[in-house]
Amino acid sequence: MSEENHFGSEPYYSLKSAAQKIFEVIAQRLDVQTTYITMKGENSMTVLSSLNKQEEIVPEGFTIDYEESHCRLIINDQDHILRTNNLMEDKLTREMEASALLQVKGYLGVTLKDLKGNVFGTLCVMDKEEKNFNQEDIEFLQTIASVLSHMIELDQTHYNMGLMNAPIIPITDGVSVLPIQGIVDAGRAEKLMGDVLRYGKEQDIDYFVLDLSGLVVRDQFFSEMLPKLIHALQVMGIDTMLTGITPEIAQKEIEANVLTQTKPKTVPNLQTALSTIGFKLVESH
């Protein structure tokens, strides 16, 4: 998988809503009891949405270790499919934990991707009875997966648009905090750069504290845009301080060594940052 799904299952409203309507069509067309979509995490697969026509075999929210899941076989397969008429007897699946948990026979699954080609998860169907799925069935499920890819893109776009306008928080004259959250792609990075530099000039900022605790690291932003932003602020005479350094960010810095030239000061939290500048946070009673 090229990218992990960093913002959890809740923002995928469009995908889940569309899936529930499409599941009925899939179940009728393929004559199966259960249809579901999974989402791939770092080490696990989670059922994002499901339809169980009779007994509940796969509940929404069900999570299983990636290595023990049928989804791993689907995603790693050259054709990105898994087809068997009996999970309990197939040599690839009969010893797997997921097969023991599900206790089903007929199974067909295809990889679900976003529009950029990144693996999102899987779209699967299964039944208590043996099912001989043919090539036409596979192509049908792959077509449905392609349709759902647009829902994934829609949800991801809505999520990132919500983070597009990074809130610059003024602390006092000459001091502001910029929380950088979520995934920063090229478009958002360019806007972020323009907004921050313009704000720094208009508000006569002396210190900018960049809070990275909510940043989802992507190589392009971390290795290119963040150093450029810091350097541009320094050229304008604005001191930059980094806080909220996560273990992931620290590891990326060790690997890429991208902040060496700009050498921004790093502190563990906002209170320390303000104290370093010369301010104190005072609790109100």
From TrEMBL:
It holds the Pfam family STAS. SUPFAM superfamilies: GAF domain-like, SpoIIaa-like. Residues 165-277 form the STAS domain. InterPro entries: Bact_StressResp_Reg, GAF, GAF-like_dom_sf, STAS_dom, STAS_dom_sf. Coiled coil: none annotated. This is STAS domain-containing protein.
